[in-house]
Task: inverse folding
């Protein structure tokens, strides 16, 4: 379920930019020409954009522009058009991809000739060029800067840092932090109160995912604002520490639930046929259709892998 399924009525990116440049008039709730996309300011020139696909984060300041993720081509262009309207068409200093999935990186093509650099973890770059089990995209703007553990960029009084903590949703997920604003984009490391996609073909690990979230919490303040990749219908795509803890606990509960079923002698077919909500996490809803990236399937495979 994409974040386009809810509306966001909040201060737009125009407010952040206008405040930075000292303009007296602030535009509220700008929805763009399509009426579907939305820019929302968080603080210190950092905000997020929603239309269709994984949430885009951004920094628009007098010192520079950074965009985190790009949704799909049309949506990436809509985001860039909105930023250009408010920045005077300045180049994007960096486009950072949190991981390779097309709803987060497919819109990279909209930034061709505009982004000075495209950044991703080395594994994300590898998967973007050759998706596990799939075909390379016909047209794509691939990363030209990759990192193993950490990447940073200073733009005026803001430092943007991307960190890789290990296998989780994929093997190439990055947490992108706007250090001074104290805002971190988690990409698909967090699905807010909804069942996640678990890409085992691309190196995902539920157990490691829990560790990644713990490391993320240790490296960020108690009042950090987190941008989530996706949220359940009607829920926000930003939140705090408690939301990260809840999702980490969901992953642990999912593994424990499947372990209990396996120890009780239930077969793979019986376990994967279970569709009722996970006890204690009913707000996440019922499990969807079993498949290779379904969390129940992936939990079963991880538990029984030995």
Result:
């Amino acid at each position: 379920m994409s974040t386009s399924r809810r509306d966001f009525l909040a201060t737009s990116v125009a407010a952040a930019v206008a405040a930075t440049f000292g303009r007296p008039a602030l535009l509220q709730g700008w929805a763009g020409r399509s009426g579907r996309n939305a820019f929302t300011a968080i603080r210190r020139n950092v905000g997020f954009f929603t239309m269709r696909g994984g949430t885009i984060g951004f920094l628009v300041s007098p010192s520079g522009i950074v965009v985190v993720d790009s949704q799909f081509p049309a949506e990436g262009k809509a985001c860039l058009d909105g930023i250009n309207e408010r920045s005077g068409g300045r180049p994007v200093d960096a486009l950072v991809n949190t991981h390779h999935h097309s709803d987060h990186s497919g819109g990279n093509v909209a930034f061709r000739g505009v982004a000075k650099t495209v950044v991703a973890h080395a594994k994300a770059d590898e998967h973007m060029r050759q998706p596990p089990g799939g075909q390379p995209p016909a047209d794509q703007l691939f990363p030209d800067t990759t990192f193993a553990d950490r990447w940073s960029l200073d733009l005026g009084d803001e430092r943007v840092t991307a960190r890789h903590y290990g296998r989780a949703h994929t093997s190439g997920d990055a947490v992108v932090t706007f250090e001074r604003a104290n805002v971190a984009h988690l990409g698909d490391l967090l699905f807010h109160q909804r069942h996640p996609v678990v890409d085992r073909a691309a190196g995902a690990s539920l157990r490691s995912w829990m560790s990644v979230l713990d490391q993320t919490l240790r490296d960020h303040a108690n009042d950090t604002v987190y941008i989530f990749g996706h949220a359940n219908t009607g829920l926000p795509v930003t939140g705090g520490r408690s939301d990260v803890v809840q999702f980490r606990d969901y992953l642990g509960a999912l593994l424990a639930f499947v372990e209990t079923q396996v120890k009780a002698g239930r077969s793979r077919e019986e376990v994967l046929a279970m569709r009722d909500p996970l006890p204690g996490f009913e707000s996440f809803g019922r499990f969807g259709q079993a498949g290779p990236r379904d969390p129940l399937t992936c939990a079963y495979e991880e538990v029984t892998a030995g």
Observations:
- Helices lie at 13-20, 73-87, 102-105, 122-129, 206-218, 241-263, 268-272, 295-303.
- Confidence is low (pLDDT under 50) at residues 1-37.
- The longest strand covers residues 38-43.
